[in-house]
Amino acid sequence: MRKDDFFNQLKEFCDTTEDHNTCTLLVSDLMRGLFRFLKINYCAVLLRNHGFLKNKYLSRNGLIIGYDHSFEPAVWTPIQNVLFSDFNDNKIPLDAIRQEFMDMSVEVIKFQSAEYPRQKARIQHPIYVRSLQLNDQFIGTLCLMDNTHDPLSAREAVIVDFFIKQFLLILENKLLKEEINKVSMYDESSGLYSKTYFMDRLEAEFKSAQRFKNPLSVLFGSLYNFNAISDTHGRREALEAANYVVSEISHFIRSIDIITLDSENEFAILLPHTPYEGASVLARKLNALIKEKTYFIDDHQCILTLIHGIASYPDEDVSSSVELLNCAKMIHAQSKELEDKFSLPIGPGIINPLEQ
Q1: Long-range contacts: 89-93, Cβ < 8 Å, 24+?
Q2: Cα(231)–Cα(238) distance, rounded to whole angstroms?
Q3: Interval 245-273: pLDDT, tens
Q4: Measuring CA to CA, how many Å separate 118 from each of 66, 121, 267?
Q5: Which of 95-99, 122-126, 244-248 has the highest mean pLDDT?
Q6: Residue 3: what are its φ and ψ, rounded to 5°?
Q7: Which has the closest alpha carbon to 22: 51, 77, 52, 64?
Q8: What are the tens digits of pLDDT across the range 322-356?
Q9: In angstroms, what CA-CA distances link 311 with 140, 205, 217, 246, 320?
Q10: What angle do CA 299, 303, 304 make, to 5 degrees?
């Protein structure tokens, strides 16, 4: 098999296997380079996440084994011994590592046979071990094994160092990118999703709804008696009440729903795969939820009330995500205007429990 065919097949395998996460693909690239330039039969990578890294790329421990011939069960023993001993040398309790080894996920990557098949009838397995360190933290171990008695040469050791440095550099860049995305995803003051992230997701969900004919709704709402509370008790108390409402809503909605602050007293909720009827039910539930909550201002109970506007696709005749959001804002404004016009003048909705 030509090398180009081999790499194309490996790429196809990695792209079509849903079980392999980003970190596994990085390790497969590392192994691909090592198998290409070294005369080895086996490569094992153990990445330890607990206590070192907390991110989606290393969400769990992973023992990733690559081999270019039929995997020999006898190789498991030296692999475990080397991995355990290396972690133990780095001041990590051996019992804890054994437990982690039992709980970890095992990804197995099969490489095609090399152009010149190597000997397979050997009993001894010379092992070359390298520790993987990221930002001065020990995160894993790399083991290279061969069916021959020949250890790695000095030139081959340089090749291993090169590929390890490239692997750690790419991994570090991905972790930094994740941190940047996390910062841009959330609003630091409110803890909710940022406006930028909300608009990006709204655009993506709108395109998906157009393509696959899925329903999509946007709920735009606010605390109705915000101005009354502000006039009676001050703007600070009104802002705290609005933040309280949004916080309660964020814990009530689904994990796939995206909520963001549009202003200090207005919020927007993106509801994927939700028709108008479903969004209306949610709005009623949210209003009931907020009314049932016991909220106090200066030791007085305050009844909080929501007002909202809902726009749904494909019910609304809109051609973009921005138009859908603006439609929800317009309906919200109209609802507020009607409420102000036909309702009795409202106060801040404060009830003294001692007077009941």
Answers
A1: 90/131, 90/138, 92/48, 92/138
A2: 9
A3: 999 999 999 989 999 999 889 999 999 99
A4: 15, 9, 65
A5: 244-248
A6: -60, -40
A7: 64
A8: 999 999 999 999 999 988 876 644 444 444 333 33
A9: 50, 14, 6, 19, 12
A10: 120
Pairing relationship of beta strands 137-145 and 127-134 according to DSSP bridges:
antiparallel
314: preceding bond cis by omega (within 30 degrees): yes
Q: Which pair of structure tokens corresponds to residue 16? A: 């079509």
| Phi, psi angles (nearest 5°) of residue 140 | 175, -175
Between 246 and 42, the higher pLDDT residue? 246
Domains belonging to the chain, first-starting first, are 3-184 (3.30.450), 195-355 (3.30.70.270)
- Per residue, what are the HEC states of the chain? CCHHHHHHHHHHHHHHCCCCCHHHHHHHHHHHHHHHHCCCCEEEEEECCCCCCCCHHHCCCEEEEEECCCCCHHHHHHHHHHHHHHHHHCCCCHHHHHHHHHHCEEEEEECCCCCCCCCCCCCCCCEEEEEEEECCEEEEEEEEECCCCCCCCHHHHHHHHHHHHHHHHHHHHHHHHHHHHHHHHECCCCCCECHHHHHHHHHHHHHHHHHHCCCEEEEEEEECCHHHHHHHHCHHHHHHHHHHHHHHHHHHCCCCCEEEEEECCEEEEEEECCCHHHHHHHHHHHHHHHHHCCEEECCEEECCCEEEEEEEECCCCCCCHHHHHHHHHHHHHHHHHHHHHHCCCCCCCEECHHHC
- The answer to which of 78-82, 200-204, 239-243, 249-253 has the lowest mean pLDDT is 78-82
Structure tokens at 74: 């006898």
Tokens 């392999």, residue located: 20
By the 10 Å C-beta count (0-12 exposed, 13-18 middle, 19+ buried), 112 is classed as middle
Q: Distance between CA atoms of 285 and 131, rounded to whole angstroms?
A: 54
Angle, vertex CA 130, rays to CA 129 and CA 132, nearest 5: 145
Specify which residues 47 forms β-bridges with.
62, 140
